[in-house]
Amino acid sequence: MQYVFRFFAAQQYRFVHCLRMAVFIVMAWIGGLKAFQYEADGIVPFVINSPFMSFFYKNAKEMVTNSEGQQVAAYTLHKNAEGQTVRKNINWHQDNGTYVFSYGLGAAIVAIGVLVLSGIWFARAGFWGGILTAGMSVVTLSFLITTPEVYVPNLGGDFPTPQYGFPYLSGAGRLVLKDVIMLAAGLLIASDSARSILVSVRKRQSLI
Question: CA gyration radius for the chain?
Answer without folding.
Answer: 22
